[in-house]
Automatic annotation (TrEMBL):
Organism: Pedobacter cryoconitis
Signal peptide stretch: 1-23
Protein name: Bulb-type lectin domain-containing protein
Domain of life of the source: Bacteria
Coiled-coil stretches noted in the UniProt entry, renumbered to this chain: none
Keyword Transmembrane helix: no
Domain Bulb-type lectin: 178-290
Keywords: Signal
Length: 316
């Protein structure tokens, strides 16, 4: 395996299949995030056994309109993650992936997409950053690195033992309709309940809309305001709630503050009708879950009040 590849050769390899295109592709990267479960204190946890580290990362792409029109500019981009080998060469850490205008919704200016990387540990250096690198295909624009976020690898790491489900013998209660813990996925289905507490019900319907309502009389208190038939609702283990289309593209995402990750988080539809995400939890002897750490997101429907922010979650 060739470990060290000159940056110029990287550009040539990425663009080789698309060099015949004459379109002036336009687009940019808005965000690059490695999922929290692969990080320790913000650094990439290098696998201690075996020679490879597997991670997942999410990229937010942005396309623009052709000036003076309502039509989108062509979009054709290749992305991958890299790390410097020295001042003039780069190591490619995963197979570059192509994203085109076909990946966007018909009216969407943004696309959030998750990728995986199988990284050769011998290419990593704790003193060298891991960057998202991208190129606009069919143009003379040089290879670029996303400059707003980099990650560094860490070889000797220990995950902290916390009070929540990660330690202390706590077990999250099974089959209790009030609670949702991370890494749970729901497929859009007619009348599907995902949480219930008394007269308050949270559903993810066949139209791909997550709705919180009160029974007797029926009153919608909050909704994600999404229409994604055949979609999936995913409570990630970093605190983000995502709705994906059938192709796996993230179409809606929220966690209140849109920044911090909470790998031990949990969600509860409270007795007062508010659907709340907490940073962590304790489990009592009777199986009741109580917060450990602050709440970080909510629908804002306490006491059966209709939310003033449909389509998003808010910070408490």
């Amino acid at each position: 395996m060739i470990k060290y590849i000159k940056a110029l050769l990287i550009i040539a390899a990425i663009l080789l299949d698309y060099s015949k295109s004459n379109a002036q592709h336009v687009g940019s990267i808005e965000n690059f995030v490695i999922s929290a479960q692969y990080l320790n204190s913000g650094k990439i946890k290098v696998t201690k056994t075996g020679g490879f580290t597997d991670i997942k990362y999410t990229v937010t792409f942005v396309r623009s309109y052709i000036p003076g029109t309502s039509n989108f500019s062509p979009f054709d981009m290749t992305v991958g993650i890299t790390t410097p080998a020295n001042n003039t060469t780069l190591n490619i850490l995963n197979q570059p992936v192509r994203v085109t205008i076909k990946d966007f919704g018909s009216t969407s200016t943004r696309l959030e997409k998750e990728f995986t990387a199988h990284i050769d540990n011998s290419l990593l250096n704790e003193n060298q950053p891991v960057n998202l690198t991208y190129a606009l295909n069919g143009t003379s624009t040089p290879l670029r690195a996303y400059e707003n976020r980099s990650y560094y690898p860490i070889f000797n790491w220990t995950d902290p033992v916390t009070e929540p489900g990660g330690g202390g013998g706590n077990k999250f209660p099974e089959n209790d309709p009030r609670y949702i813990k991370p890494n749970v996925e729901f497929i859009a289905k007619l009348g599907q309940e995902i949480a219930r507490n008394g007269e308050y019900v949270l559903v993810f319907g066949s139209d791909g809309n997550m709705v919180l309502y009160k029974e007797n009389p029926y009153t919608v208190l909050w909704a994600s305001s999404t229409v994604i038939e055949g979609g999936k609702l995913f409570f990630r283990n970093d605190g983000f709630v995502c709705i994906l289309d059938p192709q796996g593209n993230v179409k809606w995402r929220a966690n209140g503050d849109n920044n911090n990750a909470y790998p031990n988080c949990w969600w509860i539809l409270q007795t007062d009708g508010n659907f709340v995400g907490y940073q962590s939890y304790r489990t009592a002897a009777d199986g009741t879950v109580t917060p450990y750490g602050a709440a970080f997101a909510a629908t804002g429907t306490a006491n059966g009040k209709r939310s003033s922010h449909f389509g998003r979650l808010v910070i408490l």
